[in-house]
Design brief:
- The structure is a single chain.
- The chain is mostly helical and 74 residues long.
- It has a domain of 28 residues.
- It is built from 3 helices and no strands.
- The radius of gyration is 24 Å and the shape is elongated.
- The termini are far apart.
Length: 74
């Protein structure tokens, strides 16, 4: 179910946004819905990244620093 919400912005900004949306064969409502999906998705990517970093934390316990020669050994 879709719900209506109200935003406020400068009139000139709204006019320019509507004109751009019209050129792209879309509407401000459609663009806002897409933006909202991306906005929510950004948090999901952050959580996934943090989870990955936590799972890799074991690799950080290398036991100290290495000399330049040790790091370049093959």
């Amino acid at each position: 179910m879709q719900r209506n919400i109200t935003f406020s912005a400068e009139e000139e900004l709204i006019k320019k946004a509507r004109k751009k949306a019209q050129k792209e064969n879309t509407t401000l409502n459609a663009e806002f819905r897409e933006w909202l999906k991306r906005y929510i998705g950004a948090d999901k990517h952050l959580v996934n990244f943090e989870s990955l970093m936590e799972s890799l934390r074991y690799a950080d316990s290398g036991g100290g620093s290495y000399s330049r020669d040790e790091m370049n050994e093959r």
